[in-house]
Write a structure and sequence with these properties.
Helix content of chain B: over 70%
Structural class of chain A: alpha/beta
Largest sheet of chain B: 2 strands, antiparallel
Number of helices of chain A: 13
Order of helices and strands of chain A: HHHEHEHEHEEHEHEHEHEEHHHEEEEE
Chains: A alpha/beta (423), B mainly alpha (294), C mainly alpha (371)
Number of helices of chain B: 11
Distance between the termini of chain B: 54 Å
Structural class of chain B: mainly alpha
Shape of chain B: globular
Largest interface: A-C, 74 and 75 residues
Strand content of chain B: under 5%
Oligomer: heterotrimer
Shape of chain A: globular
Chain lengths: 423, 294, 371
Amino acid sequence: MKKYHKIISSVMASAMAVALFAGCGNAADNGNAQADDNAAPAENAADSSNAGAENAETGGETAATENNAGGVIKIGGVGPTTGSAAVYGLAVQNAAQLAVDEINANGGINGVQIEFKFEDDECDPEKSVNAYNTLKDWGMQMLVGSVTSGCSVAVAEKTAEDNMFQLTPSGSSVDCVKYDNAFRVCFSDPNQGMASAKYIGENAIASTVAIIYDSSDIYSSGIYEKFAAEAANQPFEIVSAEAFTADSKTDFSVQLQKAKDAGAELVFLPIYYTEASLILSQASTLGYAPIFFGCDGLDGILNVENFDTSLAEGVMLLTPFAADAEDELTKNFVAAYKEKFGDTPNQFAADAYDAVYAIKAAGEKAGITPDMDMSAICDAMKAAMPQITLDGLTGTGMTWDVSGEPNKEPKAVKITNGVYTAM
Amino acid sequence: MSFISYLINGVSLGSVYAIIALGYTMVYGIAKMLNFAHGDVIMVGGFVVFTIVSSLGLPPVLGIVAAVAICTVLGMIIERVAYKPLRNAASPLAVLITAIGVSYLLQNIALLLFGANTKSFTSIVSIPPLKLAEGKLMISGETIVTIISGIIIMVCLTLFVNRTKAGQAMLAVSEDKGAAQLMGINVNGTIALTFAIGSALAAVAGMLLCSSYPSLTPYTGAMPGIKAFVAAVFGGIGSIPGAMIGGILLGIIEILGKAYISSQMADAIVFAVLIIVLLVKPAGILGKNIQEKV
Amino acid sequence: MDKTNSKFKLSKTTKSNLITYLIVIIAYLTVQLLLAGGHMSSLMEGLLVPLCIYVILAVSLNLTVGILGELSLGHAGFMCVGAFSGAFFSKCTQGSMPDMLRFLLALIIGAVVAGVFGILIGIPVLRLKGDYLAIVTLAFGEIIKNLVNVLYIGRDSDGFHFSMKDSISLHLKEDGEVLVNGAQGITGTPHDSSFTIGVLLILLALFIILNLIHSRDGRAIMAIRDNRIAAESVGINITKYKLMAFSISAAIAGVGGVLYAHNLSTLTAQPKNFGYNMSIMILVYVVLGGIGNIRGSIIAAVLLTLLPELLRGLSDYRMLIYAVVLIAMMLLNWSPKAIEWKERFRETYFSGRKTGKSETAQVSQTGKGVK
């Protein structure tokens, strides 16, 4: 009996191995999933090995098609489409797809069509590397991703090793663009913290400031630290700095109470809008009405389904993108996005949309062709990125440094009557 | 003054934990399983109410009834499909793992159906807040309703378990399944009933959770679920009044810890208190400490 | 190996252990062969080290759950401790000694620190039983994660600075460098983990655990699991043996953590990697593989790590199907009805074989484990 089990184990192991080694291209996917359903319960030895064999065949086919790119440029995307950060990953996936479709309809990059594929990383750096590798197996030539900072840093290590061109739409921590092959569309965390502190100080918006930030989040704690450091040079005082964590982000009464007791005129919220919407509603219950000031993560707060926008009245934020801006580009983008996905696009979507257009601009400048390998494309793109100027959703006349940072001006907007208005 | 307002906030948060913990402890007490999917049933309850009240614009009463009905049926289906086949498995851990699978499943179904975007929940409570000390202290209507429902549920459950035939059958099943069967008790039916009640309570908890903290995503239930589990253990798992007390205490500790020690370390403080309580009273505050027999 | 088998009569357990080692070695050689031949997809290549990490974690947790018979939901906490102490050491000493030596020392440090945490946590925790023990281990895991998230360590010419608030309160000088930066964790850990090291560590973990199980100490530990009171009455020191198993398990998890930290360039303590979710995931490997069945843990860890990657083609439905498959696998492997059905199936088709003790029966026998 034991021997029988051994046989199953080894057959299973080999079936799994074959399934994997054969590569996981499009064509192999269905076969793979099937193999798994069969092999997993360790029921039927014959069945498993059959499935394994099937896989080897389908896998072989993909391997053959992989090497000739077939006259398309393959761009991959990585970000969380499941898990608690899914809202950001899905926005990036949708907007990037939208941009790719538009570009393809208008003739592609240098007349070459783009193929776009997005992989889920569950907001886990390790899964992000897996997603990146999956896309590499698919034949990806350039990467738009990852969406979150931690994942971007982990993936950047791999792209640097492979010399793959990486443009992260929203990875904002410093290390995301550590290597010369990595660029980003959004502002860096220190940049946002610094800009916010300067803006509040220079415009004398408030003299006493409280901060509520997520101490378990890279983005939030990164902005907080730079903001607190810069505050020392500004004519306002930080009277309270309270944190929350990913595990206790429903109740903010203490943080708000402390800000209120300390007499803060302004509460700085370097956090995402999901938590911010709770903070706003709890502040109103508490009868506390300071000025709320946020960064780009706060964008999207007006689009929380069913949200009482009167709560957000007077909220200020530094953001490069506002979904109800009046310019032609934004209007078209928002309309197309709404039509296709039924949601109003947020900051992440705008960043991703711009990322794809930046790739198009740089790609045309560099004259990339589908038959170039990823390393050659990367070298060409690296040289072209600092030369382009892009009028995108998140800024007009955006340019890039060799370091990977974008040069654009954040717009300060204020929510009045449920819409963003420029300040 | 700020201490009292922290205390009130703690009670508000705690009352939500308590109402979730009641469902948790009910299922644990009878079926002896940690139902990790309980938090996700709460989320389902929240989404049902959201769909009916906010999306379809129907009256909240209808939403409440539908949420309770749907969650009850869902709970029974989950029990029948995923838990019942493993009731006599060689290790009780098997069903724990299946519960985790169910939890993933519910989250991902909700993700596909409703998307990842945060939904703002319209409170189903229309009672105005209670103002004390010239408006300096305020107890929200949601908190009042949550506490009152918690107490009503607690009393009803206690009466149900102790006074009705079905409740006595539950006690018997929790005590000894084999003996209960020999006494002519329908063990399967009793456990299914337990899950039905537990899930109905989850629906109620979902509504009240989302009314107090009006943000709804497919992952809304996960963390409160775990916290409520901690609360149930805190109060002595299996004990109905214990869940209520454990929940409220947990909320108060969390808020006071945040306020007076460190807001960054709120979770560590909550869990540290739990550990200390369990080391002093190994079966929780109201739990029965059963001596092991040779 | 076969020759030795025929010459010497090996005991049943030795044989079984050798098979376990052999499976690992054969898997290793196959992978090396495929790598050399260039038949390996990048995805698979990238998955090799994570696979080793999860196998190590699963095997180490099986020692607590299967052999000691206590349900622990805080295993990721030990992994976290190991990961951060190992990565911190590497970060401090990077460049000052040969890479291999530094990594070896990091592994040892990770194991020792996690082991010490195992003892510290084990002393109070192991007095509790069943679900209470489970919840307290979960609590410790969460405390560790939370504390690591507010830990700031920096270094400048004056030496090390610590803070539990933020990096500003470290008051570093101009030349200072923040080594551990709270939620932003440790970045830029050297990439030292490799598949070969991973497999060597798996073999080492197996060696330690399998030898422990079949030693006098191991039998004492299992005696406690099967009947604590009886074990106590024959003079077994319960606390000592429980602590022994628990801390060894923690130390091996710490090794897994060091491997994890040196595989990615970024190390942060998120709910995803070091929270209770991860602890539960490791428990899933153990239960699916068969409680107390070390070889099963290895297979289950490999299977369940690969599964979500294999399902990538389903895009949006990936995690949904993953959940369904997980439930189905549990039902098929554990439900008494499915086991009965499998028995009948085997008898019909393999009636030539001796139908002695079935594998599942063996699992349940060794796996009284958690009560």
